[in-house]
Structure to design on (187 residues):
């Protein structure tokens, strides 16, 4: 079996790998301006954020939050809110990780439910951030106008969540199987 040090090295390596995957996947995005309240994006990063939680458990939230926050720091349009991204995307991965209790033998249904819960937690926080921070605080909008701006973000949000919920479970299962066959223990 593995020694304590080998397990810690595997955990740290997996955490760094998923952080890098989240960071890179943030570049796969289409940003669109919206009439009220700024911008919205179609992005593939949510797949990796959910996958971090599915593979690593709650500590996967650290990879999803840190990878997304590091991306924000490389883009002037998002740099000022990197701390918010760290929290919201981190909670997405953490919730998916908590919901995925048995990571050693992942089942498609359990992975899908865990990814859906991670997305739900994220989008609750994302819409609150869009309303309070982007709309009221930065945008100076009235509460009614800030709430109306949220409606414009729904199509991209549904697309992003659906893609993450559909694609992260089969990726998790395939990666777990490949890692098991390679005799690599995941945390």
């Amino acid at each position: 079996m593995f020694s304590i040090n080998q397990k810690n090295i595997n955990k740290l390596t997996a955490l760094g790998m998923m952080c890098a995957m989240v960071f890179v996947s943030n570049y796969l995005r289409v940003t669109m301006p919206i009439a009220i309240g700024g911008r919205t994006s179609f992005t593939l990063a949510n797949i990796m954020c959910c996958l971090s939680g599915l593979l690593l458990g709650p500590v996967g939230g650290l990879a999803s939050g840190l990878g997304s926050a590091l991306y924000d720091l490389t883009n002037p349009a998002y740099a000022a809110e990197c701390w918010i991204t760290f929290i919201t995307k981190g909670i997405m991965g953490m919730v998916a990780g908590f919901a995925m209790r048995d990571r050693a033998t992942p089942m498609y249904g359990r992975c899908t439910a865990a990814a859906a819960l991670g997305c739900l937690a994220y989008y609750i926080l994302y819409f609150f951030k869009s309303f309070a921070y982007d709309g009221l605080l930065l945008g100076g909008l009235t509460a009614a106008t800030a709430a109306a701006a949220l409606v414009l973000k729904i199509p991209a949000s549904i697309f992003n969540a659906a893609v993450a919920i559909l694609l992260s479970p089969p990726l998790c299962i395939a990666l777990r199987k490949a890692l098991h066959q390679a005799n690599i223990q995941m945390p």
Q: What stands out?
A: Strands lie at 29-34, 38-43. Residues 4-26+45-99+106-181 form a domain with the Arp2/3 complex 21 kDa subunit ARPC3 fold (CATH 1.10.1760.20).
